[in-house]
Write a structure and sequence with these properties.
There is one protein chain. The protein is built from 17 helices and no strands. By secondary structure, the chain is mainly α. It has 2 domains: 261 residues, Serine Threonine Protein Phosphatase 5, Tetratricopeptide repeat (Alpha Horseshoe), CATH 1.25.40.180; 38 residues, no CATH class. It is globular and about 70 Å long. The protein starts with a helix and ends with a helix.
């Protein structure tokens, strides 16, 4: 039982909150509508001020909502426009905190999974995939997620999936090759095997052939073979990103999270966000969660790992701390990495 006077106070509070959120959404919407390459710097600054003035939760939800409404439409969005929207998220992700990028990424990936399963006719799938690709281009997310999505698409391998694989490879193929050439090689082998077995079923043979040729061009680092490939706009924005990001964190703030972890975040919690409270069921006897909760450190040399083993650093967290201390440039670098 809630007494009438308490009930009334609660209703007034709710109305006040709704009004505040409405006002915040209007402000964010106004900034997003004016977003373009020349004023990216000033708009990201104003967004940071809004983050300082309002609660992170409200800002994350409002920003994600506004961006999703702007970018996820049934018609194909211009590449430059999508890039500018994701660029803004990447600046806030590096300057405000990784929960900004994490919140947006989770919303995009869940929506992508939902749209892919629904067999929608529009271009929402491509738009969502472009958002994920640019989140990778601007160092918000690690290549692990991109490879997970590609593996999933290769495993289904119908006409629609082939289009999406081509779309993704055209956007981020050469970056994937640079980050993890071995995983890309394995993916190409798997795609070739799948193409051979599914040859009879697929009507559009030329598309499959074109996809395999694109993959081969990536493998051989041959940019001329990929029609319409233009790395210049991304490179231009990456240069701008280096001037706008306050900390020298670079790739350290990349979210190394898998597709499975993002899709099951509501059930198993969000280990990739520091301080993200988890009030769900205890995760005892869950083999998957044990693997997900590993502390991910960058690729350390086998020499350092061998030293860590000799010093009896027998848990992931101890190894991480040891590797950070042994490989950091100076005390500031060590401090930043340890805090992270």
């Amino acid at each position: 039982y809630v007494p009438p006077q308490v009930r009334k106070a609660q209703e007034i509070l709710d109305d006040k909150k709704r009004e505040e959120l409405g006002r915040l959404k209007k402000m964010v919407n106004g900034l997003i509508n004016r977003l373009s390459e020349p004023n990216l710097s000033s708009i990201s600054g104003q967004m940071e001020e809004l983050y300082m003035a309002n609660s992170r939760k409200d800002m994350n939800e409002t920003l994600t909502d506004v961006l999703m409404n702007a970018c996820v439409t049934p018609v194909a969005m211009p590449t430059r426009l999508l890039m500018e929207h994701v660029f803004l998220v990447s600046i806030l992700h590096h300057n405000v905190g990784i929960e900004v990028g994490a919140h947006f990424l989770e919303a995009v990936v869940k929506k992508f999974d939902e749209v892919c399963k629904s067999d929608a006719e529009g271009k929402e799938c491509e738009n969502l995939l472009a958002l994920i690709a640019h989140l990778y281009n601007f160092h918000v997310v690690h290549c692990l997620l991109i490879f997970d999505i590609l593996k999933k698409l290769v495993s289904i391998f119908t006409g629609k999936e082939i289009e999406l694989i081509l779309f993704l490879l055209k956007n981020v193929g050469f970056s994937l090759r640079k980050d993890d050439a071995l995983a890309l090689k394995e993916l190409i082998t798997e795609a070739q095997r799948k193409a051979n077995t599914a040859e009879k079923k697929l009507q559009d043979q030329t598309r499959v052939r074109f996809m395999l040729e694109t993959m081969l061009a990536l493998k051989n680092n041959d940019m001329r073979k990929i029609p319409g490939y233009d790395p210049e706009p991304v490179e231009k924005l990456r240069k701008l990103q280096r001037t706008l990001v306050h900390s020298s964190s670079g790739k350290e703030t990349q979210l190394r999270v898998s597709l499975e972890s993002l899709l099951s975040a509501d059930q198993v919690g969000r280990w990739w966000i520091v301080g993200s409270s988890w009030s769900g069921a205890p995760m005892i006897n869950d083999a998957n969660s044990k693997t997900q909760q590993k502390v991910h450190i960058g690729k350390m040399s086998s020499k350092i790992m061998e030293l860590a083993r000799k010093q009896r650093m027998n848990t992931d967290i101890r190894r991480s701390i040891f590797c950070v201390l042994m490989t950091c440039e100076d005390f500031l670098d060590a401090f930043e990495k340890l805090i992270r």
